[in-house]
Design brief:
Strand order of the largest sheet: 1-2-3
Strand content: 5-15%
Order of helices and strands: HEEHHEH
Low-confidence stretches: none
Structural class: alpha+beta
Mean pLDDT: 84
CATH superfamily of one domain: K homology (KH) domain
Distance between the termini: 54 Å
Radius of gyration: 25 Å
CATH topology of one domain: GMP Synthetase, Chain A, domain 3
Number of helices: 4
Number of strands: 3
Shape: flat
Length: 152
């Protein structure tokens, strides 16, 4: 197998599934804030695990996952139409726990910033440190350039 074939197919599956969720699914259970974060392919290219992130609460996340799983056959046909392969990979949907952890960390940082704003204050620096000319920054004076029009 070619070295980047797995990544190319995963990228194409991510694009097709993302387009299907954003523009083609009419299921009211699927939140409009549902995005595809990543796709993992098995080594034999027979299974594509699609990881979803829903920017909402846990109940909306479960509803969106149920709606996307309900439309899995429709999405599978779209993926099969986009791929030029003998066998289309089976598409499986999961909630991306990594994205959920990142979101929780960002929420904690925002709460910390709100509770202790003095930790995040920065001082304004009125004077610039260091030379303003890029060519003075190296500290060398090479003399005139042998190239006409260069750094004179």
């Amino acid at each position: 197998m070619r070295p980047f074939r797995k990544e190319k197919i995963a990228s194409l599956v991510r694009q097709v599934v993302g387009d299907a969720i954003a523009h083609r699914l009419q299921d009211p259970r699927v939140s409009p804030l549902t995005t595809v974060t990543r796709v993992e392919m098995t080594n034999d290219l027979m299974v594509a695990k699609v990881f979803l992130s829903v920017q909402s609460d846990a109940t909306a996340e479960k509803r969106s996952l149920a709606g996307v799983r309900h439309a899995a056959a429709y999405i599978q046909r779209m993926v099969a139409g986009a791929l030029s392969m003998r066998h289309c990979p089976e598409v499986r949907f999961e909630i991306d726990e990594v994205a959920k952890g990142v979101r929780q960390t960002m929420d904690l940082l925002a709460e910390n910033r709100r509770l202790e704003p003095e930790l995040y204050e920065t001082e304004d620096v009125d004077e610039q440190v260091g030379p303003t000319d890029v060519h003075q920054a190296d500290g060398f004076d090479d003399g005139p350039s042998p190239f006409p029009g260069a750094r004179e």
